[in-house]
Amino acid sequence: MDLATVIGLIAGICALFFGFIWEGGHAASLFEKTALLIVFGGTFAATAVSFPLSKLKRIPDALRHAFRKADIEPLAMIDRIVDMATVARREGVLALENEANALEEPFLKNGLLMVVDGTDPELTRQILELEMDAVEREREQQAKIFETAGGFAPTMGIIGTVMGLIHVLSNLADPGSLGPSIAVAFTATLYGVASANLIYLPLASKIKTNAQERIQLLELMLEGILALQAGENPQLIRKKLNSFMLLEPGEQRTKKVDANAAQE
Amino acid sequence: MDLATVIGLIAGICALFFGFIWEGGHAASLFEKTALLIVFGGTFAATAVSFPLSKLKRIPDALRHAFRKADIEPLAMIDRIVDMATVARREGVLALENEANALEEPFLKNGLLMVVDGTDPELTRQILELEMDAVEREREQQAKIFETAGGFAPTMGIIGTVMGLIHVLSNLADPGSLGPSIAVAFTATLYGVASANLIYLPLASKIKTNAQERIQLLELMLEGILALQAGENPQLIRKKLNSFMLLEPGEQRTKKVDANAAQE
Amino acid sequence: MDLATVIGLIAGICALFFGFIWEGGHAASLFEKTALLIVFGGTFAATAVSFPLSKLKRIPDALRHAFRKADIEPLAMIDRIVDMATVARREGVLALENEANALEEPFLKNGLLMVVDGTDPELTRQILELEMDAVEREREQQAKIFETAGGFAPTMGIIGTVMGLIHVLSNLADPGSLGPSIAVAFTATLYGVASANLIYLPLASKIKTNAQERIQLLELMLEGILALQAGENPQLIRKKLNSFMLLEPGEQRTKKVDANAAQE
Amino acid sequence: MDLATVIGLIAGICALFFGFIWEGGHAASLFEKTALLIVFGGTFAATAVSFPLSKLKRIPDALRHAFRKADIEPLAMIDRIVDMATVARREGVLALENEANALEEPFLKNGLLMVVDGTDPELTRQILELEMDAVEREREQQAKIFETAGGFAPTMGIIGTVMGLIHVLSNLADPGSLGPSIAVAFTATLYGVASANLIYLPLASKIKTNAQERIQLLELMLEGILALQAGENPQLIRKKLNSFMLLEPGEQRTKKVDANAAQE
Amino acid sequence: MDLATVIGLIAGICALFFGFIWEGGHAASLFEKTALLIVFGGTFAATAVSFPLSKLKRIPDALRHAFRKADIEPLAMIDRIVDMATVARREGVLALENEANALEEPFLKNGLLMVVDGTDPELTRQILELEMDAVEREREQQAKIFETAGGFAPTMGIIGTVMGLIHVLSNLADPGSLGPSIAVAFTATLYGVASANLIYLPLASKIKTNAQERIQLLELMLEGILALQAGENPQLIRKKLNSFMLLEPGEQRTKKVDANAAQE
């Protein structure tokens, strides 16, 4: 569970709500059931039309990806792959079968089992790259659903407000109620813009950033599996995989590792 | 027929309409024939100018693509290709001729007939990739027509409203009618924004998502046809084609299939 | 002449104009000479600054491309190339010289003459691809001029309206004229948004769509010329060039042609 | 000096100014020193933050590129390269040394001197491509500065107007001054939108279009230098370089040249 | 420290503030604590949801990159690499070990140590390119955080203003306070648009421009390290690395260097 995401969602709604209360507003005037129907109903409907049912069913999955923290640290993954490469060099790739079967991570497991099976290296790369593409496409689609909702919500808000204004302006019999009626019309804009910018768009962005991290980890694993299959020197493998990590002035960790690798 | 799309379209219009009625609005004040002419006429005209007649004639086809469910499941397609690869290995590719002629799917049929004819593998790939590009281009064009309409509709709405305001403000003799007249002007904005965001843009998005699924299926078929032509091991073909499908932690199906394939 | 484009342009302006008249507006209140100067003068000036004179001189050419129908049908072109490939196979490429000189289509003519001259195939491809790039660049530039004008026009409309409001609000001596004066200010917005969305942007889109069709035809010709030069089998050439055309379920034409080709 | 650019800039400002005067506005009400400070100061500051000092120093250079006409015609450049190729074929590349040293055009000069020096063809291509990339990057950066300013200016205008409205609405003691005060607030919007759309964005577009022409000329020179170094036939070089130019139906020039080349 | 950035940030805020004061506004009316909470709290929350905690922790690092001047001049870097190439040619690459260890620049140091270690050239390129990609990704992410904040801030401003208007319009008991209350509501828009356009977006742009310069320097170093490893002629290396710099008409520096190199 990524706490920053949960706290951010709550904090955003609180900042808006308490800002309004602090100004002297009444909580009740923020709640307008017709605007709720128009904005959330309209956004939901437009999003449902935009995607086939098979994609819409993946929304809970998308939410899980948005809130979940990356489960595997790249550095831990590098250690694991280097360890397995050492075993493979000493005892042959067949020695990895039990270890591979015990793995949680499906991409690494699948890749290692292909290596154990003696699959042709070129075919291994091809299959793992196709799997990587499938993950990328899936995550992009998930982010796109929220992005699409985030694009429709403000326009549904505008539609709600315009319909509210049409209603108000058609019945000017009682000018005294003009102000409150326009206020009601504005709640639709508020719902649309707030739901898009506090919920849909930030979640879409989170899914995308998490997907990028996942893809990067898959690339690291792919490079590691292929190097292991080619029987490369474990220290060279570590060096290569470390290059996926950032190396900036002032950062000592990677430099030390590289220095060590260089001395060996 | 993709029910999510049909229900979404109806639900969106209902959410807006009943939201307005619930607020106390009169259905009649949402119907304004001059605004209808300006917004729908203008959008239609601008879209007609944007595309050659040959593309506009494909709109019914585009609608069919938007509402149709994907007819072939990728998993069923994989089974079929693996079956045919088994036949081809045992009895030679000529044995596939009758099966190919009975196929509904034109891309697979065309590809298999080329294999049966003994077309050069490189030429087969080239021709099938050109056909794939033609499908991609066609679907993108279809989505673009709706996207273009979705871009013009809100601006036509603004034009209608501005013309309404020009009319109202030029004749302020009777200030009492100011409100209702402005309400009438606003219906143009409502038509423009609502038609774009409930109809044109969601349909464009749906056509694009469906096109992506179709292209992905064509890629799977292309890979399968070429592997079959190369006389590859049917289990390897299944393994390769399965990689087009998503492999995520928690998903057991593909893992099992791969495990089986690995054991054979 | 693409009738859809001409009718679309006229229909769009009519829809707006008669919508306004139907509402009870006076045609005269849509005509405001200062707004005309600001919006069309400003758009023209900003567009003139955006491009070098050499590009601006191509505007008539761009208009010609926007209104012209595609002159050559891809299917007719395929027939012609296959015919010439048959001649070239029977009588040698030199037999094509007269036919090539009689051609209207400069790309095909130029390519065939190079083949007749015995130009190296690699050089032929290189030169024809450079020519194709030149056409693509030119058409994109032409579309961009209209797109740029379509981007400036609405902002010029806003400038005109803001200037109108500044003028009106500075002189509130006679409140009675406030309404009509604001109406006048709004005509600038009307001109800007309408000219962009009924004229500039649709024409830009049309030029782009036509350019795509032209480029596709050039690619088909390029592939045909190279295949002819390589002395490929005319039926194979037809098969390859047919792949540039769409092959969809329900479409019989291409399937039949392919089936025929497969039987030969 | 590209006259279209200078005239366009002046014409745009005149169209707006005289449109306003014609409407009966007073020139003085368009001049508001606080709005000037907010809009131009804010735009300048935001742009200064957006780029490092080293890029900001290139603004005069960027302006020079925006206003300058292309100095070399592609056709003249082709003639020159073909002439030099003829000399190189007859007398060897060393004969080009004096001619190269006398050249104004640094890219061609540098390339020819490398050829004269006997630099390896692959290295020549590599170095010239790196130089081409450096030009492209530089021009894109220059265009981006103006584009960035064109993005900030309208928002600074909105900021100025909002601050003006805050000021006006906080002091409603004298309702008579409400109109003129709002008019003053609107001048900020006017400055922001007009400066962006009449100056910054058109100049950015001009720099980009000129850069494209320059890059195209560099590509032509690169191809010419490499062909000359390879000792290719001058007529073939002309044919190849001519392909960089547009070849359209109705255009006779290039066709004739190609016909001539074909007869030789 | 890049002074242009610091001065720009201060100047932008001053331009707006003093413009407002000059107009006769009271500084106090620009300070509204509820708007501060809504706009800055909302922007912070939405941005926090958009990125995983691991990326948010890099914000101080991102700010350091935004304000820091490029520490190494490309020309000085070229001199250094050419010097080292001269040493490597005379005394062998092992002679560079001490010099490499003394280097500040981690990319160059890491690359040279691999050369000293006798790492395979292809592997050296692969590792250095992976490191370059990691830097690029990291900087893009940093810029994206500020870009995202710059996208959310204006919408939070609109939310604040709409909530303010809802509050005002619901309580029209005292019409005299209508103006000042709307003024208060507008401060939220002011905060949102100003913070986005004076702070977030310019900083994002600065980080991106600096990242481009850094990547370019890394490319130059990569090319230099590989050339040095290949034992290329130092003058050729200088010539190649100089091509990363701009070569424009009127610029004498690079031309001279190239002329010299040509004479040697």
TrEMBL record, chains A, B, C, D, E:
Record-annotated MotA/TolQ/ExbB proton channel domain positions: 100-219
Keyword Protein transport: yes
Record-linked InterPro entries: MotA-like, MotA_ExbB_proton_chnl, MotA_N
Transmembrane regions: 37-54, 149-170, 182-204
Domain Motility protein A N-terminal: 6-86
Keywords: Cell membrane, Flagellar rotation, Membrane, Protein transport, Transmembrane, Transmembrane helix, Transport
Membrane topology type: Multi-pass membrane protein
Protein's UniProt keywords contain Cell membrane: yes
Any one GO BP annotation for this protein: chemotaxis
Subcellular location(s) of the protein: Cell membrane; Membrane
Gene Ontology CC annotations of this record: plasma membrane
Domain of life: Bacteria
Protein family according to the UniProt entry: Belongs to the exbB/tolQ family.
Protein name listed in UniProt: Motility protein A
Native source organism of the sequence: Paenibacillus nasutitermitis
